[in-house]
Specification:
It contains 16 helices and 25 strands. By secondary structure, the protein is an alpha+beta fold. The strands form seven sheets. Strands 18-22-17-21-19-20 form a six-stranded mixed sheet. Strands 1-8-9-11-10 form a five-stranded antiparallel sheet, with helices on one face.
């Protein structure tokens, strides 16, 4: 059967760094560095590279964990078949030798693999590894965080030690993007899913050598690593939940890298001698999810007019202005840096109209109905939750409570029915593909069930966006899904954060991917 490379069809066809919250277009910056200009002593390869995590990771099995803190560590330990390129515009082979070769009907894809890769425990990476990993993702009992990654794959055939054939139920336009996600990282056929949560074994450049749960995680160079040896041989992740304490560690040089500088602390960090503060575009979105029939107050939240009033009560543009140029305002669920975004989406949804919101609340007679907003205790999330609470009260909702929870608990609560009415949520689109936002966040079957949105037409648009390799068709389906979810008032985009991070001047080439993850192996010592 005739085969053709599907790499071009699967690449991101456009990356646009623009968005708006009030109709005016804003431009995302190129990566920009604010450097106080003082000199820092050079680091040595013997020194640990100290990284701050703002919350506790939940575990180190890459297939079953999806929080950003776990992924920050896992991406140093595990490898995927493909990587998203550093600029976020396309993909490149990683453990795969090349892009998949697709059959003429698109119902099979053959992938050739590297033959020089081993796990940190010495086991060989090969076709059996790929088969095992995909089958674990598909196994409902295993508990994959992103079962949608393997949704199109009916079976995996081992054609040779370093070649696999994927038999597909439909032509999958997102196949490469999904295999660039950390939830598809390769795990050993001899691994136990529970054991991996605390004792990770991967093919990446680092191996975990020490761990104090909730406190500190030490990684060291993996002597079995197949790629280029990194400058940095030892990495120490330390959990520091309180932002002021974390910044103090930068000031005293106890920390070398702060991957997320809270937007309210940017000016303080910019003024630390010997530290670079960097802003760069990302594919991240912070948004408000509104439950309907599975809300804590389902009678209230199932009323579409009430949900519309809530959205019209929030002056998103004014809030964005308080963040001093470190975010982009947007009316689109899909960020402008993600495939599927169309500029027309800035006119979808419900604009700020406080008087209309007040009138709707009064007409519905719901002023005293209880409303619960779920938020994590991460500072940026809690701050915007407080702003939303105040906005709803100003519109006439008199009984609005916040439900702040420590990050891991918040992630669990966010999936529970009848636990809250609204939730402040953040999603970093690692793959840069809109299907990979809608499927895990809003699809009624495939999602993590945080919003618990149920609309058959929406699901159909998302399904159709993945079941073709025609990128024009995919774009139209994703745009239609975007418009429908906004019209249904189940999601309101709050803003697209930039990557805002800081690092010691002893290092260079410190970058964060558009999907908000970073790879320490690419960081360099200043010579």
């Amino acid at each position: 059967m005739k085969k053709s490379k599907i790499a071009m069809a699967l690449a991101l066809s456009a990356v646009l760094f623009a968005g708006c919250a009030s109709g005016a277009k804003s431009e995302a910056p190129e990566a920009s560095v604010d450097n106080p200009g003082s000199e820092a002593p050079a680091a040595s390869t013997d020194e640990p590279f100290n990284i701050i995590l703002n919350a506790q990771p939940t575990g180190f099995n890459p297939l079953t964990t999806n929080d950003s803190m776990s992924s920050d560590i896992n991406i140093q330990i595990y490898d995927t078949l493909y990587n998203r390129t550093q600029d976020g515009t396309s993909y490149e082979p990683n453990l795969a030798l090349d892009f998949p070769e697709s059959s003429e009907d698109g119902l099979s894809a053959t992938i050739k693999l590297r033959d020089d890769v081993s796990f940190s425990n010495g086991e060989k990476f090969n076709a059996e590894t790929v088969k095992f990993t995909i089958e674990r993702i598909k196994d409902k009992e295993y508990g994959s965080a992103r079962a949608s990654i393997a949704a199109s794959i009916e079976s995996v055939e081992v054609l040779g030690e370093y070649e696999v054939k994927l038999n597909l139920s439909y032509p999958d336009g997102v196949l490469v993007a999904k295999f660039a996600h950390m939830n598809s990282a390769m795990i050993s056929p001899n691994s136990d899913g529970v054991a991996l949560m605390t004792e990770p074994v991967g093919t990446g450049p680092y191996v975990m050598t020490e761990a104090v749960a909730g406190s500190e995680y030490v990684l060291e160079y993996n002597e079995n690593y197949w790629g280029e040896e990194p400058d940095i041989k030892k990495v120490v992740f330390t959990v520091v939940a309180e932002a002021s304490t974390a910044i103090s560690r930068l000031e005293t040089a106890e920390a070398d890298f702060m991957p997320v500088v809270p937007l309210t602390n940017v000016n303080r960090v910019k003024n630390i001698p010997g530290v670079n503060f960097v802003t760069s575009p990302s594919s991240q979105i912070t948004y408000l999810g509104l439950r309907t029939d599975t809300a804590k107050n389902p009678e209230l939240m199932s009323n579409e007019k009430v949900r519309q009033a809530m959205l019209m009560a929030i002056d998103r543009a004014s809030y964005v202005e308080t963040l001093e140029g470190n975010v982009l305002g947007t009316n689109s669920i899909l960020p402008s840096t993600v495939f599927g975004y169309k500029e027309e989406a800035e006119n979808y949804g419900y604009a700020f109209d406080l008087e209309a919101a007040k009138a709707a609340v009064a007409e519905a007679g719901v002023a005293d109905e209880p409303v619960v907003i779920l938020t994590s205790t991460v500072q940026a999330t809690q701050t915007v939750a407080e702003y939303i609470q105040a906005s709803l009260k100003e519109a006439g909702f008199n009984n609005v409570e916040l439900l702040p929870q420590e990050f891991a608990t918040y992630l669990d609560t966010a999936k529970q029915p009848n636990a809250f009415d609204l939730a402040v949520l953040t999603w970093a689109n690692v793959t840069g593909d809109g299907t990979e936002f809608f499927d895990p966040n809003l699809h009624s079957v495939n999602s993590s069930q945080r919003v618990q949105y149920k609309n058959e037409a929406f699901d159909q648009y998302v399904d159709e966006s993945r079941e073709t390799m025609d990128m024009d068709v995919r774009l139209e389906k994703l745009d239609a899904a975007n418009e429908l979810a906004l019209k249904d008032a189940v999601v309101v985009p709050l803003y697209n954060p930039f990557n805002t991070f800081a690092f010691s001047e002893k290092y260079e080439n410190v970058t964060i991917l558009p999907g908000t993850y970073f790879k320490v192996q690419h960081f360099k010592l200043v010579k």
